[in-house]
Write a structure and sequence with these properties.
The protein is mainly alpha-helical. It has one domain. The chain has helices at about 10-25, 30-35, 40-45, 45-65, 80-90, 105-130.
Length: about 150
Amino acid sequence: MSVGYNFNDANWVRAYDAWRMRNMGLPTDDKARKAIPLFTGFLMYFPDACAAVAEVSRIGNDQHNPGEPLHWAREKSTDQMNTAQRHMVDHGRGNFKDTDGAWHLAKAIWRLSAELQLTIEREQQNAQTKDPVGPGQFMSFGPVAGRLK
């Protein structure tokens, strides 16, 4: 009997996110946790930008997961680097907002944050398995995707 995973199931996604936070989240050591100033060193530096990126999350969830609780549907969002660059080009050409009213730079930051998150998770997972690359680990961007070196 095989067990399948329904990546579109919101309960599975929440369970996976909870597992990921337990296994690959912030440090558990008290001093190490306190050394990361999430609130004062990030949110309070860029409150408007953080709100704009959070709005991109809501807009994307409404578009790709209508009626579902807010979550990152990773299987629907895979071309982070190319998409981020397209939003940066739009911004660079003076087109600051997308057709849905969201800032192009907020969308680029969301995509770059997604790529950073995936990269950190791969590194942490590979450190746990002592495999510097990990079997089947690939860079997530488009036609140049390939095994990490």
